[in-house]
Amino acid sequence: MKSSAFGDRQRRGSIPDERRAPVSTRRGIRLLLTGLCAGLLGIAIVAGAPFAAGNVHADRLAGPYGGGASAVWLVLPKGPVRSVVVFGHGWKLTPYFPGHPWVDQFRPWLDHLAAGGSAVMFPNYQTGSGDAGDVTRVQDYEAAIRTGYVRLGRPKVPFIAFGYSFGASLAFYYAANARAWKVPVPRAVQATFPAGMIEGAVLPALDPSVRVLIQVGDADTEAGSGGANQFWKWLANHPASLKSYEVVHSSPQLTATHAAPKATSPAAQRAFWAPLDRLIALARGR
Predict the structure, then answer these.
(1) Dihedral, CA atoms, 103, 107, 112, 116, nearest 10 degrees?
(2) Residue 247: which domain range?
(3) Residue 108 class from Cβ within 10 Å (0-12 exposed, 13-18 middle, 19+ buried)?
(4) What pLDDT, in 10s, does the model give residues 220-278?
(5) What is the domain count for the chain?
């Protein structure tokens, strides 16, 4: 995958392909705490997480933990952690600017997941400065997941992998290599508009218990169906009852271009948020 084909460009004050995303006035405001308030202390106790004072934001965004491409952000629920969602973003062409990390791009969705009881890990996996789309990205993604797992206190709850574009490709590498990485095997994977397989990275067979949803957009001229088809072929021997290949069809409410999963409209929520909610519910019910 070439970064120019799937990249998100960011400029200070302007993110052209995210015009529909609401801007929260709370984002990027870091609350420097001298001690944890009672609510945040309760979260840390429930999750067993060693959150450092000064690294937890007023809006329940924690981190970043680790450095550079290996860093990870956490979005925390207010109550007990019922599941963990590892959330992979799309390819970035430029670094994020101070006060506006990439995690902000999906904050409405991440906050929705946290409101439902999921802790969200958001790996950086890139610096946005000429990154190579190769095995190095998988290694940085692995390191971020391991850091997030420790920071959450190694919770014994269901894990679910979600990824968009290049992040969708990474979700499969996590699911297939989880045991080797010494992190929980996700019970489900949602790969939305996957970019394709990653050169030089090991992709063993997926555990046959994992549910899989692959989504492609009928108006996606960037990722198209090429990457999705690669992974679908890789899943040829996976149980048919646990895998699904879905074409997201455009409508007057939503044009299923490559950028569609970043929208927050009701139509986008039905197309992308709702399937992930269902996978989380199924994972918790096992």
Answers:
(1) 30
(2) 3-285
(3) middle
(4) 999 999 999 999 999 999 999 999 999 999 999 999 999 999 999 999 999 999 999 99
(5) 1
Classify residue 52 as left (phi > 0), alpha (psi -120 to 50) or beta: beta
User: Count of alpha carbons within 13 Å of 181, Cβ hemisphere only?
Assistant: 26
- Return the CATH number at 175: 3.40.50.1820
